[in-house]
Design brief:
By secondary structure, this protein is α+β, with helices and mostly antiparallel strands.
Length: about 250
């Protein structure tokens, strides 16, 4: 549903889609139709996981999350203290189909995802799960997020270990039992943590394109939600992929 090129321009068809989904539009006969876009107020305050992984291990860990367009998910985790790196990419499919134009067709089994490398002594896996479910996306939307539709935009957690899988399973059960959402969580827990980095044009996209209509409507409010709900976890300076390469 979304498109990108090396210049980060947004095609007119995408601008039209965002206008339809995120703002007021003048229809035939002068009828006004409006759908409210995601806002920081829509970020959900949810309980922390009852189960978590040890935070004493000083070895960097990785977690892979899929929650719609990877631009916004990456942008959120880049602002989390303790995250050392957040890379946009593809998970769930094979290496030969891990390319944006192929994944966008929706038949590769890949999901747009973000690989988060983190210091467990500064931020736990459970806290990352809490941020993922409360701020980064809506876990009750099946195979879509906002204007983006297809299995490539599914909500999923690609567990990097049996321990991560166990914690994630317990947390989904905990949140469903607490009924913190009006609908049941549809997040898939997938045990094959394959990850293939996306093209460089998709890395750090939120930071480099803060005025892009898609980013303004769908993603910047998520960072505001992080700042509001997790002030002790928020950092104003994001950890960037391209900066680390220089």
């Amino acid at each position: 549903m979304k498109s990108s090129d090396s210049s980060k321009s947004v095609p007119s068809r995408r601008n039209l889609l965002q206008a339809l989904l995120g703002s007021t539009v003048l229809l035939g006969g002068g009828l006004l139709w409006q759908r409210r876009a995601y806002s920081a107020e829509e970020a959900v305050r949810i309980p922390a996981p009852a189960q978590d992984l040890p935070t004493s291990d000083q070895t960097p860990q990785r977690a892979i999350f899929a929650g719609g367009c990877f631009w916004g998910v990456q942008g959120v985790f880049q602002h989390v203290k303790g995250v050392q790196r957040a890379v946009s990419g593809y998970s769930g499919g094979t290496a030969n189909t891990a390319a944006y134009e192929l994944v966008s067709r929706g038949n590769t089994n890949h999901a747009e995802s973000v690989e988060v490398t983190f210091d467990p002594t500064q931020v736990s896996y459970g806290t990352l799960l809490q941020i993922f479910f409360s701020v980064a996306h809506d876990p009750t939307q099946l195979n879509r997020q906002g204007p983006d539709v297809g299995t490539q935009y599914r909500s999923a957690i690609f567990a990097s270990s049996p321990a991560q899988l166990k914690v994630a399973q317990a947390y989904v059960a905990q949140l469903n039992a607490a009924r913190v959402y009006p609908k049941t969580i549809v997040t898939r827990l997938e045990e094959k943590p394959s990850f293939y980095p996306a093209e460089m044009s998709h890395q750090d996209y939120m930071t480099e394109n803060p005025r892009n209509p898609y980013i303004v409507i769908n993603d910047l409010p998520k960072v505001e939600g992080l700042k509001r709900l997790f002030p002790d976890r928020y950092r104003s300076e994001p950890v960037l992929v391209k900066k680390a390469r220089t």
